[in-house]
Design a protein that fits this description.
The protein contains twelve helices and eight strands. The chain is globular and about 75 Å long.
């Protein structure tokens, strides 16, 4: 029984630390840091028109004809000098009318590859055509706030920053859209952690919806990378440069149309996470990367590897300990587990019945996210040599 208890408590501590404890630890460290320094973070000075550098805004796309007009209207509304902005579309094996539509916009630099090789390959293709010192990446179906580029450029003024991650915001087209609402809640929490990571030392990676790199420190990600954006940003971090995070530059997109479509994304992210952990395993060495190792393991590695297994083990371990008469505390934890899973089941049933429950969407999405880590293992095995993927339908 002692062995079961040890495994049970280690699993429980791991789950709580990964999803709640790490955030609390970050918050406490930052509070103490500010108290000891007796000052707030030094503000970033604004840049005037003459100081703004040349920037390439790169959109890697595959069959995105339905969003090109909306995306170009959004780009034209950005507050950045046109003479210093290159708008580059890289169409990776597109077979629709994307290239024809983009030809109607004189400001667009079109880079086309007739063969679909994946987003990492498309990014590298575009970067070979780039002339600007800074490149901002964004997706075709995400809309940026008007100050996004100015804010990103300002972040590069911080010490040793060579990559900047903007904020991803998720909207639901209608109430009761479980996938979009669950994803939106998750990203609000995730954005807070990213900001605290950045304030402590560095954000742990960037998402492709909106991030930027300093070309001077660019490192090429493997062409079969499933999380090309994450790998590109983490290779910059591995070389000793920082990733800054800012919520003042954000990309808005609609969440997945339903949980089945969202699962396509989550499986790929989970598979890419496992792939990235292996490629970036040297960053987990606390002797060579003390700050990064703590943040990388706590924020990324545990979520993508051990913690979902620990969460799954809690159920049979709790049942076994109750059968063996381990004590009242295990009965209480068992009841709490049961209530949590019943809440998730109720939320899932309500969603399928077309009824809204924003509160119950939280346990539904939490379990859904962890389940897809296991599905991601199969995805990784079947996609390990290719960086292409099936797009998720948006709401």
């Amino acid at each position: 029984m002692l062995t079961l208890k040890i495994i049970f408590w280690l699993s429980l501590i791991l789950v709580v630390y990964t999803y709640v404890g790490y955030g609390l630890v970050l918050w406490l460290i930052l509070k103490v840091k500010r108290l000891l320094l007796h000052r707030e973070a030094v503000p970033i000075l604004p840049l005037n028109e003459d100081q703004l550098p040349e920037v390439t805004l790169m959109i890697c796309a595959y069959n995105e004809q339905d969003v090109i007009q909306e995306k170009m209207e959004n780009i034209r509304a950005l507050d950045y000098p046109q003479q210093k902005l290159c708008v580059m579309w890289v169409t990776d094996g597109s077979t629709d009318q994307s290239n024809v539509l983009l030809g109607h916009y004189p400001e667009v630099k079109l880079v086309f590859s007739p063969e679909r090789r994946g987003k990492a390959a498309a990014m590298q293709h575009g970067l070979r055509e780039n002339k600007a010192p800074y490149v901002v990446f964004t997706d075709a179906n995400t809309m940026l706030n008007s100050d996004a580029l100015r804010e990103i450029v300002r972040q590069f003024m911080k010490e040793n920053v060579s990559c900047v991650s903007g904020e991803k915001r998720v909207a639901a087209r209608h109430e009761g859209q479980t996938a979009a609402e669950g994803e939106g809640i998750y990203w609000r929490y995730e954005s807070t952690l990213k900001q605290w990571d950045s304030d402590l030392y560095s954000a742990m990676g960037a998402a492709g919806e909106l991030f930027a790199i300093r070309m001077e420190h660019y490192r090429e990600a493997p062409q079969n990378a499933l999380l090309d954006d994450f790998m590109m940003s983490m290779l910059i971090l591995k070389d000793g440069h920082r990733i800054a995070y800012t919520s003042r530059a954000y990309a808005m997109e609609y969440g997945s149309a339903n949980m089945r479509e969202e699962s396509k994304r989550k499986r790929r992210i989970a598979a890419g996470g496992l792939q990235s952990i292996w490629w970036l395993r040297s960053l987990m060495n606390p002797f060579t990367h003390p700050k990064v190792a703590f943040q990388f393991v706590s924020h990324r590695v545990l979520r993508w590897s051990i913690t979902p297994l620990a969460l799954l083990l809690l159920i049979p371990l709790n049942i076994a300990l109750l059968i063996l008469g381990a004590g009242t505390v295990y009965a209480i934890i068992g009841v709490l587990q049961l209530l949590f899973y019943l809440a998730a089941l109720t939320g899932w049933l309500l969603a399928h019945a077309g009824r809204e429950s924003k509160l119950l969407n939280i346990p539904v999405y939490f379990l859904f996210m962890n389940l897809n880590v296991f599905l991601g293992i199969h995805y990784l095995i079947t996609h390990r040599k290719s960086g292409t993927w099936e797009k998720a339908g948006r709401g």
